[in-house]
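Re-run requested by the PI after the first attempt was lost when the workstation crashed. Everything re-entered from the original request form. Ligand of interest: adenosine monophosphate.
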Amino acid sequence: MINPLYDRLFRPHEGKTTPFLRFLDGTEMRYQDFLSLVSRLAHVLTEKGLVPGDRVAVQVHKSAQALALYGAAVKAGLVFLPLNTAYTAHEITYFVEDSGARLLVCDSADIKTYQSIFSDHDMEMLSLDADGSGTLMDQVSLMDADFHPVPRDKEDLVAILYTSGTTGRSKGAMLTQNNLLSNALSLAEAWRFTDQDVLLHALPIFHTHGLFVATNIVLATSGSILFLPKFDLDAIMTLIPKATTMMGVPTFYTRMLEDQRLTQEMTAHIRLFVSGSAPLLAESHRQFSARTGHAILERYGMTETNMNTSNPYDGERRPGTVGFPLPGVELKITDPEQGTMMPQGEVGQIELRGPNVFKGYWQMPEKTATELRPDGFFITGDLGRIDADGYLHIVGRNKDLIISGGYNIYPKEIELILDDQPGVLESAVLGVPHPDLGETVLGVIVAVPGQTPDLDHIAATAASALARFKQPRKLILIDELPRNTMGKVQKNILRERYKDVFLDD
Ligand code: MLC
Ligand code: AMP
Protein backbone atom coordinates (compact mmCIF):
# COMPACT_ATOMS: atom_id res chain seq x y z
CA MET A 1 0.00 0.00 0.00
CA ILE A 2 1.18 3.49 -0.76
CA ASN A 3 -0.56 5.41 1.96
CA PRO A 4 -2.51 2.93 4.11
CA LEU A 5 -5.02 5.35 5.60
CA TYR A 6 -5.74 7.06 2.30
CA ASP A 7 -5.83 3.78 0.39
CA ARG A 8 -8.37 2.18 2.73
CA LEU A 9 -10.56 5.09 3.85
CA PHE A 10 -10.52 7.56 0.96
CA ARG A 11 -9.39 6.00 -2.32
CA PRO A 12 -12.30 3.53 -2.64
CA HIS A 13 -14.66 6.51 -2.92
CA GLU A 14 -12.98 8.18 -5.87
CA GLY A 15 -15.63 8.60 -8.55
CA LYS A 16 -18.47 7.43 -6.32
CA THR A 17 -21.67 9.41 -6.81
CA THR A 18 -23.45 8.45 -3.59
CA PRO A 19 -23.79 11.14 -0.90
CA PHE A 20 -21.11 11.39 1.77
CA LEU A 21 -22.22 14.50 3.67
CA ARG A 22 -25.83 15.61 4.01
CA PHE A 23 -26.48 19.08 5.37
CA LEU A 24 -29.27 20.67 7.39
CA ASP A 25 -30.58 22.61 4.40
CA GLY A 26 -31.15 19.38 2.45
CA THR A 27 -28.10 19.75 0.18
CA GLU A 28 -25.49 17.01 -0.14
CA MET A 29 -21.85 16.52 -1.01
CA ARG A 30 -21.17 13.37 -3.01
CA TYR A 31 -18.16 11.18 -2.29
CA GLN A 32 -16.51 12.04 -5.61
CA ASP A 33 -16.85 15.77 -4.94
CA PHE A 34 -15.44 15.35 -1.46
CA LEU A 35 -12.51 13.35 -2.86
CA SER A 36 -11.80 15.91 -5.53
CA LEU A 37 -11.82 18.63 -2.89
CA VAL A 38 -9.36 16.54 -0.87
CA SER A 39 -7.02 16.39 -3.88
CA ARG A 40 -7.26 20.09 -4.65
CA LEU A 41 -6.58 20.94 -1.02
CA ALA A 42 -3.60 18.57 -1.02
CA HIS A 43 -2.21 20.61 -3.94
CA VAL A 44 -2.70 23.85 -1.98
CA LEU A 45 -0.84 22.40 0.97
CA THR A 46 2.11 21.14 -1.04
CA GLU A 47 2.29 24.33 -3.12
CA LYS A 48 2.69 26.18 0.17
CA GLY A 49 5.96 24.26 0.46
CA LEU A 50 4.85 21.70 3.00
CA VAL A 51 6.67 18.38 2.85
CA PRO A 52 5.75 15.00 4.37
CA GLY A 53 5.84 15.11 8.15
CA ASP A 54 5.17 18.86 8.39
CA ARG A 55 2.44 19.88 10.84
CA VAL A 56 -0.71 21.63 9.65
CA ALA A 57 -2.43 23.41 12.57
CA VAL A 58 -6.14 23.94 11.98
CA GLN A 59 -8.48 26.02 14.13
CA VAL A 60 -11.67 26.32 12.09
CA HIS A 61 -15.39 25.83 12.46
CA LYS A 62 -16.94 22.56 11.43
CA SER A 63 -17.55 22.41 7.68
CA ALA A 64 -17.22 20.00 4.76
CA GLN A 65 -14.10 21.92 3.74
CA ALA A 66 -12.57 21.44 7.19
CA LEU A 67 -13.17 17.71 6.95
CA ALA A 68 -11.68 17.63 3.47
CA LEU A 69 -8.61 19.40 4.86
CA TYR A 70 -8.07 16.41 7.15
CA GLY A 71 -8.25 14.15 4.08
CA ALA A 72 -5.84 16.43 2.22
CA ALA A 73 -3.30 16.27 5.04
CA VAL A 74 -3.53 12.46 4.99
CA LYS A 75 -3.12 12.36 1.22
CA ALA A 76 -0.16 14.75 1.22
CA GLY A 77 1.60 12.85 4.04
CA LEU A 78 1.31 15.77 6.46
CA VAL A 79 0.56 15.71 10.17
CA PHE A 80 -2.92 17.09 10.93
CA LEU A 81 -3.19 19.13 14.11
CA PRO A 82 -6.80 20.08 14.84
CA LEU A 83 -7.45 22.70 17.54
CA ASN A 84 -10.57 23.51 19.55
CA THR A 85 -12.30 26.61 18.17
CA ALA A 86 -12.74 27.80 21.77
CA TYR A 87 -8.98 28.15 22.35
CA THR A 88 -7.75 31.69 22.93
CA ALA A 89 -4.77 33.26 21.14
CA HIS A 90 -2.73 32.59 24.29
CA GLU A 91 -3.48 28.85 24.05
CA ILE A 92 -2.96 28.70 20.29
CA THR A 93 0.47 30.30 20.62
CA TYR A 94 1.65 27.37 22.69
CA PHE A 95 0.32 24.73 20.28
CA VAL A 96 1.79 26.41 17.22
CA GLU A 97 5.18 26.93 18.82
CA ASP A 98 5.38 23.53 20.45
CA SER A 99 4.41 21.67 17.29
CA GLY A 100 6.52 23.82 14.98
CA ALA A 101 3.54 24.01 12.61
CA ARG A 102 4.42 25.09 9.06
CA LEU A 103 0.89 26.21 8.23
CA LEU A 104 -1.96 27.56 10.34
CA VAL A 105 -5.48 27.51 8.92
CA CYS A 106 -7.85 29.63 10.99
CA ASP A 107 -11.04 31.66 10.79
CA SER A 108 -10.67 34.96 8.93
CA ALA A 109 -11.86 36.73 12.09
CA ASP A 110 -8.65 35.61 13.84
CA ILE A 111 -6.13 36.00 11.07
CA LYS A 112 -4.98 39.54 11.95
CA THR A 113 -4.38 38.58 15.57
CA TYR A 114 -2.45 35.48 14.59
CA GLN A 115 -0.48 37.36 11.92
CA SER A 116 0.80 39.76 14.55
CA ILE A 117 1.56 37.02 17.08
CA PHE A 118 3.36 34.80 14.58
CA SER A 119 4.97 37.52 12.44
CA ASP A 120 8.47 36.20 13.11
CA HIS A 121 7.57 32.52 12.60
CA ASP A 122 8.41 30.59 9.47
CA MET A 123 4.76 29.66 9.06
CA GLU A 124 2.17 30.21 6.36
CA MET A 125 -1.37 31.25 7.25
CA LEU A 126 -4.62 30.71 5.38
CA SER A 127 -8.23 31.31 6.37
CA LEU A 128 -11.26 29.04 6.27
CA ASP A 129 -14.62 30.24 7.54
CA ALA A 130 -17.68 28.33 8.69
CA ASP A 131 -19.37 28.89 5.32
CA GLY A 132 -16.47 27.24 3.50
CA SER A 133 -14.97 30.47 2.14
CA GLY A 134 -11.53 31.94 2.82
CA THR A 135 -8.07 32.28 1.34
CA LEU A 136 -7.58 28.52 1.51
CA MET A 137 -10.59 27.97 -0.71
CA ASP A 138 -9.65 30.82 -3.07
CA GLN A 139 -6.67 28.73 -4.10
CA VAL A 140 -8.58 25.47 -4.37
CA SER A 141 -10.41 26.49 -7.52
CA LEU A 142 -7.06 26.90 -9.32
CA MET A 143 -5.88 23.39 -8.51
CA ASP A 144 -6.03 20.10 -10.34
CA ALA A 145 -8.41 17.42 -9.04
CA ASP A 146 -5.72 14.73 -9.41
CA PHE A 147 -3.14 14.38 -6.70
CA HIS A 148 -0.97 11.33 -6.29
CA PRO A 149 -1.07 10.19 -2.64
CA VAL A 150 2.25 10.65 -0.88
CA PRO A 151 3.68 7.27 0.19
CA ARG A 152 3.55 6.67 3.92
CA ASP A 153 4.45 3.82 6.21
CA LYS A 154 1.82 2.56 8.61
CA GLU A 155 4.01 3.73 11.50
CA ASP A 156 4.26 7.28 10.14
CA LEU A 157 2.52 10.08 12.01
CA VAL A 158 -0.76 11.27 10.63
CA ALA A 159 -2.02 13.50 13.45
CA ILE A 160 -1.02 15.21 16.64
CA LEU A 161 -3.83 15.90 19.11
CA TYR A 162 -2.99 18.02 22.11
CA THR A 163 -4.31 16.88 25.45
CA SER A 164 -3.83 18.87 28.64
CA GLY A 165 -1.20 17.75 31.08
CA THR A 166 -0.97 17.37 34.84
CA THR A 167 1.86 19.89 34.94
CA GLY A 168 -0.23 22.50 33.14
CA ARG A 169 1.66 21.99 29.88
CA SER A 170 -0.34 20.36 27.10
CA LYS A 171 1.10 17.27 25.45
CA GLY A 172 0.83 16.42 21.78
CA ALA A 173 -0.30 12.81 21.36
CA MET A 174 1.35 11.41 18.22
CA LEU A 175 -1.00 9.18 16.25
CA THR A 176 0.12 6.95 13.42
CA GLN A 177 -1.60 5.81 10.26
CA ASN A 178 -2.05 2.37 11.80
CA ASN A 179 -3.45 3.74 15.07
CA LEU A 180 -6.33 5.37 13.20
CA LEU A 181 -6.84 2.73 10.56
CA SER A 182 -6.84 -0.30 12.86
CA ASN A 183 -9.29 1.39 15.20
CA ALA A 184 -11.68 2.51 12.47
CA LEU A 185 -11.83 -0.99 10.99
CA SER A 186 -12.23 -2.62 14.36
CA LEU A 187 -15.09 -0.29 15.38
CA ALA A 188 -16.85 -0.51 12.03
CA GLU A 189 -17.02 -4.25 12.49
CA ALA A 190 -17.87 -4.22 16.19
CA TRP A 191 -20.73 -1.77 15.63
CA ARG A 192 -21.85 -3.34 12.33
CA PHE A 193 -21.58 -0.26 10.12
CA THR A 194 -22.53 -0.69 6.45
CA ASP A 195 -23.07 1.50 3.40
CA GLN A 196 -26.73 1.72 4.44
CA ASP A 197 -25.89 3.70 7.56
CA VAL A 198 -26.64 7.37 8.01
CA LEU A 199 -24.72 8.76 10.97
CA LEU A 200 -26.08 11.80 12.80
CA HIS A 201 -22.92 13.81 13.46
CA ALA A 202 -23.17 16.73 15.89
CA LEU A 203 -19.74 16.39 17.53
CA PRO A 204 -16.87 18.81 16.95
CA ILE A 205 -14.26 17.57 14.45
CA PHE A 206 -11.19 18.66 16.39
CA HIS A 207 -11.21 15.64 18.74
CA THR A 208 -10.85 11.88 18.46
CA HIS A 209 -14.56 11.24 18.90
CA GLY A 210 -15.96 13.43 16.11
CA LEU A 211 -12.98 13.31 13.75
CA PHE A 212 -11.64 9.78 13.94
CA VAL A 213 -14.30 7.58 15.48
CA ALA A 214 -17.32 9.06 13.72
CA THR A 215 -15.81 10.09 10.39
CA ASN A 216 -13.35 7.27 9.80
CA ILE A 217 -15.95 4.57 10.50
CA VAL A 218 -18.27 6.01 7.87
CA LEU A 219 -15.41 6.39 5.39
CA ALA A 220 -14.46 2.76 6.04
CA THR A 221 -17.96 1.52 5.28
CA SER A 222 -19.21 3.96 2.60
CA GLY A 223 -22.28 5.24 4.46
CA SER A 224 -23.27 8.86 4.79
CA ILE A 225 -23.17 11.53 7.47
CA LEU A 226 -25.87 13.99 8.50
CA PHE A 227 -23.41 16.75 9.20
CA LEU A 228 -24.51 19.31 11.81
CA PRO A 229 -22.28 22.30 12.55
CA LYS A 230 -22.69 21.63 16.29
CA PHE A 231 -25.01 20.03 18.79
CA ASP A 232 -28.42 21.67 18.42
CA LEU A 233 -31.31 19.94 20.15
CA ASP A 234 -33.96 21.05 17.66
CA ALA A 235 -31.89 19.91 14.70
CA ILE A 236 -31.21 16.59 16.40
CA MET A 237 -34.91 16.04 17.04
CA THR A 238 -35.71 16.86 13.42
CA LEU A 239 -33.01 14.64 11.94
CA ILE A 240 -33.16 11.55 14.15
CA PRO A 241 -35.91 9.96 12.03
CA LYS A 242 -33.58 10.25 9.01
CA ALA A 243 -30.57 8.65 10.70
CA THR A 244 -29.64 5.07 11.52
CA THR A 245 -26.91 5.81 14.07
CA MET A 246 -25.77 8.60 16.35
CA MET A 247 -22.65 9.16 18.43
CA GLY A 248 -22.45 11.60 21.31
CA VAL A 249 -21.03 12.56 24.66
CA PRO A 250 -23.32 11.96 27.67
CA THR A 251 -24.48 15.61 27.66
CA PHE A 252 -26.11 14.96 24.26
CA TYR A 253 -28.18 12.17 25.76
CA THR A 254 -29.15 14.00 28.95
CA ARG A 255 -30.25 17.01 26.89
CA MET A 256 -32.27 14.72 24.60
CA LEU A 257 -33.92 13.13 27.62
CA GLU A 258 -35.14 16.54 28.75
CA ASP A 259 -36.99 16.96 25.47
CA GLN A 260 -40.50 15.53 25.31
CA ARG A 261 -40.14 14.93 21.55
CA LEU A 262 -37.83 11.99 22.30
CA THR A 263 -40.01 8.90 21.96
CA GLN A 264 -39.87 5.31 20.81
CA GLU A 265 -41.58 6.20 17.51
CA MET A 266 -39.25 9.02 16.55
CA THR A 267 -36.16 6.86 17.20
CA ALA A 268 -37.58 3.79 15.44
CA HIS A 269 -35.30 4.24 12.40
CA ILE A 270 -32.15 4.30 14.55
CA ARG A 271 -30.28 1.04 14.99
CA LEU A 272 -27.51 2.28 17.30
CA PHE A 273 -26.84 5.10 19.77
CA VAL A 274 -23.22 5.29 20.99
CA SER A 275 -21.94 7.27 23.99
CA GLY A 276 -18.42 8.02 25.13
CA SER A 277 -15.72 10.54 26.11
CA ALA A 278 -17.16 10.87 29.63
CA PRO A 279 -19.10 8.63 31.99
CA LEU A 280 -22.75 8.08 31.11
CA LEU A 281 -24.72 7.73 34.34
CA ALA A 282 -26.36 4.31 34.64
CA GLU A 283 -29.52 6.22 35.45
CA SER A 284 -29.40 8.12 32.13
CA HIS A 285 -28.84 4.81 30.33
CA ARG A 286 -31.93 3.32 31.98
CA GLN A 287 -34.10 6.39 31.35
CA PHE A 288 -33.08 6.38 27.70
CA SER A 289 -33.99 2.70 27.36
CA ALA A 290 -37.34 3.25 29.03
CA ARG A 291 -38.18 6.23 26.79
CA THR A 292 -36.94 4.91 23.45
CA GLY A 293 -36.39 1.17 23.74
CA HIS A 294 -32.71 1.73 22.79
CA ALA A 295 -29.88 0.57 25.06
CA ILE A 296 -27.15 3.15 24.46
CA LEU A 297 -23.86 1.43 23.61
CA GLU A 298 -21.20 2.94 25.87
CA ARG A 299 -17.56 2.68 24.92
CA TYR A 300 -14.29 3.94 26.41
CA GLY A 301 -11.52 5.78 24.63
CA MET A 302 -8.78 8.34 24.94
CA THR A 303 -6.93 10.72 22.68
CA GLU A 304 -3.79 8.65 23.19
CA THR A 305 -5.38 5.31 22.46
CA ASN A 306 -8.43 5.86 20.26
CA MET A 307 -11.15 3.42 21.36
CA ASN A 308 -10.28 0.66 23.80
CA THR A 309 -13.40 -1.07 25.01
CA SER A 310 -17.01 -1.28 23.97
CA ASN A 311 -20.24 -2.76 25.17
CA PRO A 312 -21.37 -5.51 22.83
CA TYR A 313 -23.50 -4.91 19.76
CA ASP A 314 -25.28 -8.18 20.42
CA GLY A 315 -25.75 -9.09 24.04
CA GLU A 316 -26.24 -7.06 27.15
CA ARG A 317 -25.14 -3.41 27.09
CA ARG A 318 -24.60 -3.04 30.79
CA PRO A 319 -25.40 0.42 32.22
CA GLY A 320 -22.50 2.07 34.05
CA THR A 321 -19.91 -0.08 32.25
CA VAL A 322 -17.79 0.36 29.15
CA GLY A 323 -17.86 -3.26 28.07
CA PHE A 324 -15.02 -5.46 26.83
CA PRO A 325 -11.67 -4.76 25.15
CA LEU A 326 -11.96 -4.41 21.38
CA PRO A 327 -10.28 -7.12 19.29
CA GLY A 328 -6.50 -6.71 19.42
CA VAL A 329 -6.61 -4.53 22.55
CA GLU A 330 -5.01 -5.92 25.70
CA LEU A 331 -6.23 -4.46 28.98
CA LYS A 332 -4.99 -5.04 32.49
CA ILE A 333 -5.81 -3.65 35.91
CA THR A 334 -2.69 -2.92 37.93
CA ASP A 335 -1.63 -1.63 41.30
CA PRO A 336 -0.92 2.10 40.82
CA GLU A 337 2.16 1.96 43.06
CA GLN A 338 3.74 -1.34 42.00
CA GLY A 339 2.43 -1.82 38.46
CA THR A 340 1.60 -5.43 39.32
CA MET A 341 -1.67 -7.10 38.30
CA MET A 342 -4.57 -6.69 40.71
CA PRO A 343 -6.67 -9.74 41.64
CA GLN A 344 -9.78 -10.22 39.47
CA GLY A 345 -12.61 -7.86 40.48
CA GLU A 346 -10.46 -5.36 42.37
CA VAL A 347 -9.98 -1.71 41.51
CA GLY A 348 -6.68 -0.60 39.99
CA GLN A 349 -5.30 1.53 37.20
CA ILE A 350 -6.21 0.66 33.64
CA GLU A 351 -3.31 -0.18 31.31
CA LEU A 352 -3.69 -0.80 27.60
CA ARG A 353 -1.70 -2.18 24.72
CA GLY A 354 -2.60 -2.63 21.07
CA PRO A 355 -2.36 -1.22 17.57
CA ASN A 356 -4.59 1.65 18.73
CA VAL A 357 -2.06 2.97 21.25
CA PHE A 358 -0.19 6.12 20.24
CA LYS A 359 3.52 6.54 19.59
CA GLY A 360 4.26 8.94 22.44
CA TYR A 361 4.09 12.65 23.22
CA TRP A 362 5.54 15.07 20.70
CA GLN A 363 9.04 16.07 21.83
CA MET A 364 8.45 14.88 25.39
CA PRO A 365 10.49 11.68 25.76
CA GLU A 366 10.51 11.81 29.57
CA LYS A 367 6.76 12.28 29.80
CA THR A 368 6.28 9.49 27.26
CA ALA A 369 8.49 7.18 29.31
CA THR A 370 6.43 7.72 32.48
CA GLU A 371 3.15 6.80 30.77
CA LEU A 372 4.14 4.33 28.06
CA ARG A 373 5.94 1.28 29.43
CA PRO A 374 8.81 -0.31 27.47
CA ASP A 375 6.58 -3.36 26.86
CA GLY A 376 4.03 -1.13 25.10
CA PHE A 377 1.40 -0.85 27.85
CA PHE A 378 0.01 2.66 28.27
CA ILE A 379 -0.90 3.80 31.78
CA THR A 380 -4.22 5.56 31.25
CA GLY A 381 -4.64 7.25 34.63
CA ASP A 382 -8.17 5.85 34.78
CA LEU A 383 -9.19 3.57 37.62
CA GLY A 384 -11.33 0.56 36.89
CA ARG A 385 -12.38 -2.94 37.75
CA ILE A 386 -13.55 -5.89 35.71
CA ASP A 387 -16.70 -7.57 36.96
CA ALA A 388 -17.35 -11.30 37.06
CA ASP A 389 -18.74 -11.21 33.51
CA GLY A 390 -15.77 -9.35 32.09
CA TYR A 391 -17.34 -5.89 31.78
CA LEU A 392 -15.02 -2.99 32.57
CA HIS A 393 -16.29 -0.42 35.08
CA ILE A 394 -14.49 2.92 35.19
CA VAL A 395 -14.68 3.90 38.84
CA GLY A 396 -12.56 7.05 38.94
CA ARG A 397 -9.34 8.66 37.89
CA ASN A 398 -5.84 8.46 39.20
CA LYS A 399 -5.14 11.77 37.44
CA ASP A 400 -6.28 15.24 38.40
CA LEU A 401 -8.63 15.70 35.47
CA ILE A 402 -12.03 17.31 34.97
CA ILE A 403 -14.28 16.21 32.08
CA SER A 404 -16.87 18.86 31.28
CA GLY A 405 -19.35 18.04 28.51
CA GLY A 406 -16.74 15.68 27.03
CA TYR A 407 -13.89 18.22 27.10
CA ASN A 408 -10.86 17.46 29.27
CA ILE A 409 -9.52 20.08 31.62
CA TYR A 410 -6.43 19.72 33.76
CA PRO A 411 -6.76 21.84 36.94
CA LYS A 412 -3.06 22.68 37.06
CA GLU A 413 -3.30 24.90 33.99
CA ILE A 414 -6.00 26.97 35.70
CA GLU A 415 -4.35 26.95 39.13
CA LEU A 416 -1.17 28.43 37.62
CA ILE A 417 -3.23 31.39 36.38
CA LEU A 418 -5.20 31.85 39.60
CA ASP A 419 -2.05 31.63 41.75
CA ASP A 420 -0.54 34.49 39.76
CA GLN A 421 -3.32 36.95 40.57
CA PRO A 422 -2.92 39.85 43.03
CA GLY A 423 -3.88 38.93 46.58
CA VAL A 424 -3.96 35.18 45.89
CA LEU A 425 -1.84 32.99 48.13
CA GLU A 426 -2.85 29.69 46.55
CA SER A 427 -5.70 27.99 44.78
CA ALA A 428 -7.24 24.63 44.02
CA VAL A 429 -9.30 23.88 40.95
CA LEU A 430 -11.64 20.92 40.95
CA GLY A 431 -14.48 19.29 39.08
CA VAL A 432 -17.86 19.23 40.79
CA PRO A 433 -21.10 17.66 39.58
CA HIS A 434 -23.08 19.63 37.02
CA PRO A 435 -26.52 18.56 35.76
CA ASP A 436 -25.82 19.37 32.09
CA LEU A 437 -22.06 18.99 31.68
CA GLY A 438 -21.50 16.07 34.05
CA GLU A 439 -18.74 17.97 35.82
CA THR A 440 -17.78 21.61 35.79
CA VAL A 441 -14.90 23.74 37.01
CA LEU A 442 -14.82 25.28 40.49
CA GLY A 443 -11.95 27.50 41.64
CA VAL A 444 -11.18 27.73 45.35
CA ILE A 445 -8.91 30.57 46.42
CA VAL A 446 -6.97 31.37 49.58
CA ALA A 447 -6.02 35.04 50.05
CA VAL A 448 -2.64 36.41 51.05
CA PRO A 449 -3.13 37.29 54.76
CA GLY A 450 -4.66 40.76 55.08
CA GLN A 451 -5.60 41.05 51.41
CA THR A 452 -8.91 40.61 49.57
CA PRO A 453 -8.49 39.32 46.02
CA ASP A 454 -10.89 40.81 43.48
CA LEU A 455 -12.76 37.71 42.24
CA ASP A 456 -14.34 39.55 39.28
CA HIS A 457 -10.96 40.72 38.11
CA ILE A 458 -9.56 37.20 38.48
CA ALA A 459 -12.47 35.76 36.48
CA ALA A 460 -11.84 38.33 33.73
CA THR A 461 -8.14 37.46 33.61
CA ALA A 462 -8.94 33.74 33.38
CA ALA A 463 -11.40 34.56 30.59
CA SER A 464 -8.74 36.29 28.52
CA ALA A 465 -6.29 33.40 28.83
CA LEU A 466 -8.45 30.30 28.79
CA ALA A 467 -11.05 28.78 26.50
CA ARG A 468 -14.56 29.28 27.91
CA PHE A 469 -14.98 25.62 28.80
CA LYS A 470 -11.89 25.73 31.05
CA GLN A 471 -12.88 28.88 32.93
CA PRO A 472 -14.06 28.35 36.51
CA ARG A 473 -17.85 28.65 36.59
CA LYS A 474 -17.49 29.91 40.14
CA LEU A 475 -14.68 31.22 42.37
CA ILE A 476 -14.92 30.73 46.11
CA LEU A 477 -12.71 32.37 48.74
CA ILE A 478 -11.83 30.14 51.69
CA ASP A 479 -9.49 30.43 54.70
CA GLU A 480 -7.23 27.49 53.92
CA LEU A 481 -6.95 24.45 51.70
CA PRO A 482 -7.36 21.06 53.40
CA ARG A 483 -4.07 19.15 53.27
CA ASN A 484 -2.94 15.67 54.29
CA THR A 485 0.06 15.02 56.49
CA MET A 486 2.31 15.10 53.42
CA GLY A 487 1.07 18.63 52.67
CA LYS A 488 -0.87 17.54 49.57
CA VAL A 489 -4.13 19.39 48.92
CA GLN A 490 -7.05 17.04 49.56
CA LYS A 491 -9.29 17.79 46.62
CA ASN A 492 -11.60 14.95 47.58
CA ILE A 493 -12.56 16.91 50.72
CA LEU A 494 -13.21 20.04 48.66
CA ARG A 495 -15.18 18.02 46.11
CA GLU A 496 -17.37 16.63 48.87
CA ARG A 497 -17.81 20.08 50.45
CA TYR A 498 -18.87 21.74 47.20
CA LYS A 499 -20.59 18.83 45.46
CA ASP A 500 -23.99 20.59 45.43
CA VAL A 501 -22.85 24.06 44.34
CA PHE A 502 -24.17 23.65 40.80
CA LEU A 503 -26.91 21.16 41.57
CA ASP A 504 -28.73 23.70 43.77
CA ASP A 505 -28.88 26.33 41.01
C1 MLC B 1 -19.46 24.76 25.55
N1 MLC B 1 -19.27 25.43 26.72
C2 MLC B 1 -18.81 24.60 27.63
C3 MLC B 1 -18.69 23.35 26.99
N2 MLC B 1 -19.09 23.49 25.70
N3 MLC B 1 -18.47 24.77 28.91
C4 MLC B 1 -18.03 23.72 29.59
N4 MLC B 1 -17.90 22.48 29.04
C5 MLC B 1 -18.21 22.28 27.75
N5 MLC B 1 -18.08 21.07 27.19
C6 MLC B 1 -19.58 26.81 27.02
C7 MLC B 1 -19.94 27.68 25.89
O1 MLC B 1 -18.78 28.35 25.52
C8 MLC B 1 -20.99 28.61 26.48
O2 MLC B 1 -20.39 29.60 27.28
C9 MLC B 1 -21.70 27.75 27.42
O3 MLC B 1 -20.76 26.72 27.74
C10 MLC B 1 -22.97 27.13 26.90
O4 MLC B 1 -22.92 27.03 25.52
P1 MLC B 1 -23.73 26.01 24.73
O5 MLC B 1 -24.04 26.61 23.43
O6 MLC B 1 -24.86 25.50 25.55
O7 MLC B 1 -22.67 24.90 24.56
P2 MLC B 1 -22.88 23.80 23.57
O8 MLC B 1 -22.54 24.28 22.20
O9 MLC B 1 -24.23 23.23 23.74
O10 MLC B 1 -21.78 22.76 24.01
C11 MLC B 1 -21.98 21.74 24.91
C12 MLC B 1 -21.60 20.44 24.21
C13 MLC B 1 -20.23 20.62 23.55
C14 MLC B 1 -21.63 19.34 25.22
C15 MLC B 1 -22.65 20.14 23.11
O11 MLC B 1 -19.29 20.98 24.54
C16 MLC B 1 -19.76 19.43 22.83
O12 MLC B 1 -20.09 19.22 21.67
N6 MLC B 1 -18.96 18.58 23.50
C17 MLC B 1 -18.37 17.41 22.86
C18 MLC B 1 -16.94 17.33 23.27
C19 MLC B 1 -16.23 16.19 22.55
O13 MLC B 1 -16.39 15.97 21.35
N7 MLC B 1 -15.40 15.46 23.26
C20 MLC B 1 -14.68 14.32 22.68
C21 MLC B 1 -13.24 14.37 23.13
S1 MLC B 1 -12.39 12.94 22.46
P3 MLC B 1 -21.21 30.85 27.82
O14 MLC B 1 -20.17 31.80 28.24
O15 MLC B 1 -22.06 31.31 26.71
O16 MLC B 1 -22.02 30.34 28.98
C22 MLC B 1 -12.30 11.90 23.80
C23 MLC B 1 -11.92 10.50 23.53
C24 MLC B 1 -13.15 9.68 23.59
O17 MLC B 1 -12.62 12.24 24.87
O18 MLC B 1 -13.23 8.72 24.37
O19 MLC B 1 -14.04 10.02 22.84
P1 AMP C 1 -9.44 12.59 26.18
O1 AMP C 1 -8.10 12.85 26.75
O2 AMP C 1 -10.22 13.82 25.83
O3 AMP C 1 -9.31 11.69 25.08
O4 AMP C 1 -10.30 11.88 27.30
C1 AMP C 1 -10.01 10.58 27.71
C2 AMP C 1 -10.61 10.32 29.04
O5 AMP C 1 -12.04 10.39 28.96
C3 AMP C 1 -10.34 8.92 29.53
O6 AMP C 1 -9.06 8.80 30.11
C4 AMP C 1 -11.46 8.72 30.52
O7 AMP C 1 -11.13 9.32 31.77
C5 AMP C 1 -12.60 9.50 29.89
N1 AMP C 1 -13.57 8.64 29.20
C6 AMP C 1 -13.72 8.39 27.88
N2 AMP C 1 -14.77 7.57 27.66
C7 AMP C 1 -15.31 7.31 28.88
C8 AMP C 1 -16.42 6.55 29.33
N3 AMP C 1 -17.23 5.92 28.50
N4 AMP C 1 -16.67 6.51 30.66
C9 AMP C 1 -15.87 7.16 31.53
N5 AMP C 1 -14.82 7.92 31.17
C10 AMP C 1 -14.54 7.98 29.85
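Saved to the shared folder this time. The longest strand covers residues 424-434.
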